[in-house]
Write a structure and sequence with these properties.
- The chain is an alpha/beta fold.
- It has a single domain (about 15-190), classed as 3-Layer(aba) Sandwich (Rossmann fold), CATH 3.40.50.300.
- The chain is about 35% helix and about 15% strand.
- The protein has helices at about 25-40, 55-65, 80-85, 100-120, 135-140, 145-155, 170-175; strands at about 15-20, 45-50, 70-75, 125-130, 160-165, 175-180.
- It has a 6-stranded parallel beta sheet, sandwiched between helices.
- The longest helix is centred in the middle third of the chain and has 21 residues, at about 100-120.
- The N and C termini lie far apart (about 40 Å).
Length: about 200
């Protein structure tokens, strides 16, 4: 029997969530779960694949207000991070300086996965979020079989969340929760760029 299957709300953690689809809210949903877990004294570790902007709200909140919430990023650092942190009139999205080459993306994704293996198997964190890992999988920066092996070897007491578009069917099949967020409308469609506190 898998951990957490007894139906007792206090049995503990240990299940796997997948948040995927083309709609907004995958990382946001994972952060909501993180906030809930932190409220119960659960240690949270988030690994962000392909993201490197330390000016994003969740990163700044974890650094400033939440000692039980660790975020490690494996993307290219934003050239203007310090400016974003100080000047909320400075908008993100036009420079594209944060995009990596495909070689860099493969390398950073592999590094992120190695850390994910360590963190998920250690049992030190009650909730681990692998943000955008599904994107890394869909672009084949990392191998599905390596992620399946990680799921097999994760601590039985660690709740695990995998976010991002394009979650492979093999990963969905192993998950306990699969949520597909579908886009019906988005301000991006009419040229509205990402906004402070909403998209980042």
């Amino acid at each position: 029997m898998r951990f957490g299957e007894t139906g007792d709300a206090k049995t503990g953690l240990g299940l796997v969530h997948v948040y995927t689809g083309d709609g907004k809210g995958k990382t946001t949903a994972a952060l909501g779960l993180a906030l809930r877990a932190i409220g119960h004294g659960i240690k949270v570790y988030m690994i962000q694949f392909l993201k490197g902007g330390t000016y994003v709200g969740e990163y700044m909140a974890s650094e400033t207000f939440m000692p039980n919430f660790t975020i490690k990023q494996f993307g290219k650092k934003c050239t203007y991070s310090e400016m974003y942190k100080k000047d909320k009139d400075y908008s993100c999205g036009s420079c594209r300086d944060c995009f990596m080459t495909s070689t860099e993306m493969v390398s950073s994704s592999k590094d992120a996965l190695e850390l994910a293996k360590e963190v998920t198997s250690s049992g030190d964190s009650g909730l681990v979020i692998l943000d955008e890992i599904n994107v890394a999988l869909s672009f084949k920066y990392i191998k599905t079989e390596d992620v399946l092996e990680m799921l097999k070897n994760k601590s039985k007491s660690t709740e695990l969340v995998l976010t991002g578009r394009g979650a492979p069917e093999e990963i969905r099949a192993e998950a306990d929760y699969v949520t597909v967020l579908q886009r019906e409308k988005h301000p991006f469609d009419r040229g509205v760029m990402g906004r402070w506190g909403v998209e980042y």
